[in-house]
Design brief:
Length: 77
């Protein structure tokens, strides 16, 4: 899906608000936009996981090192 120039411009504005001294090439600014998309996706995924935990579709597991992992809930048979 191709994004509109105004969508990309909004990402650049957000980046510039957070990093007012930033300067870069087109390739570098492309990286800014990509990183902003990754941050947005990570936030959306975390929110989706929370919703699915509440619905009981996912379960939370804690590994020995304290890392949380998530898995599909097993259906009661």
């Amino acid at each position: 899906m191709q994004r509109s120039a105004s969508d990309v411009a909004a990402d650049i504005r957000r980046y510039c608000n957070a990093h007012p001294d930033a300067r870069d090439t087109i390739a570098g600014i492309t990286w800014w936009v990509h990183m902003q998309e990754q941050e947005d996706l990570a936030t959306a995924v975390a929110q989706a996981v929370d919703l699915l935990l509440q619905e009981g579709l996912l379960e939370r597991y804690q590994q020995l090192d304290g890392t949380e992992v998530f898995g599909c809930a097993r259906c009661a048979e």
